[in-house]
Amino acid sequence: MGRISSSASPWRVGILFSETGVTSVIEKSQLHGALLAIEEINEAGGVAGREIQPIAYDPGSVVTRYGELAETLLAQDGVNVIFGCYMSSTRKEVLPVIERRNALFFYPTLYEGFEYSPNVIYGGAAPNQNSVPLASYLMENYGNRFYFVGSDYIYPRESNRVMRTIVRQGGGEVIGERYVPLHAQAKDFEVILRDIRRQQPDVIFSTVVGTGTINFYQAYRQAGGDGKRVPIASLTTNEAEVAQMGAEAAAGHITAAPYFRNISTPANQRFLERYKRRFGTVADVTSCCEAAYFQVHMFANALRQTGTTDTDQLRAALSGAEYDAPQGRVKIDPDNNHTYLESRIGRVDDQGEYVVEFEVGRAIKPDPYLVVPALHDWSMQLIRPREGRFKM
Predict the structure, then answer these.
(1) Do 271 and 258 share a structural domain?
(2) Which of 46, 105, 144, 237 shows the smallest number of beta carbons within 10 Å?
(3) What is the span of the domain harbouring residue 39?
């Protein structure tokens, strides 16, 4: 194990995750994942004898603050690398700041696709890695009549556009599509739930995010909804939100993600053990937390190769880079700066824990522009998961 030099200046990186506001439930888990990785790297001697020093700000889930604070990090704090953001609207605020200054931005969140920037390393799932497998699973197991409910901003609307295309290609139909404010309360779902009860869809596809997710699932149950009969399926609902909404409201509902907390891999077991020692619980560990964690480690590996935070040199080192992440082996695609990721379908059991019902069994090449979007042309096949899962 190496040692940190007391005389060497640290490698400074920016951290932009909200600890307050509507999306703090998930962003705090991303913050924890990033900080844990930084601590692991520093405990092992840092990079070239220099520690990584996080400069963190709390944007408070206010969209415009992400761009403002990114400018502060780059112009005043002297960083050239930033990890951050959950919502696509906040990524869009940071993107022009990053590109104008030719900095490097690690985005550890699934998103709607149809974007490429040479200044961004995308660590979350693209539509072909989650929307396509989820649609295939739902239509095979529940039916082809979908009802869309989303928060009213760019990610839900674009994600629903993609899902609508996939469903129609599979012979399905979207019988309803409604949006709620980002700060949606239970009462904001009353009219929608009455319409769902009237139309009787086979499945509800939710792109509601933040605290609205908790309110939606609880309101659905209180209105008589049964996740075991007509599930709410999502790409964003995660363990942290399930813990807050409670097992009764979450049971039966479905999420597609590269990572679930209880998958059985040696890397995941080590990750969870360290996370629990550091933060006292693994209740908030999510796929976005795991992505923030492995992105920091991949950055550190590139930094070891280059010895500089220069964007062009780091980008070259990251192109094609691989890492043994908790979810499995991941790789940054040289074609588009997105990441080869696992694809899994999880369903919440009566104890409020996700059980992986199907997985692809290999990392999927990212296709952010859905060059091959057709449901029945998809080259992958969902299989039953490998036996075993990590017991917490």
Answers:
(1) no
(2) 144
(3) 11-125+263-340
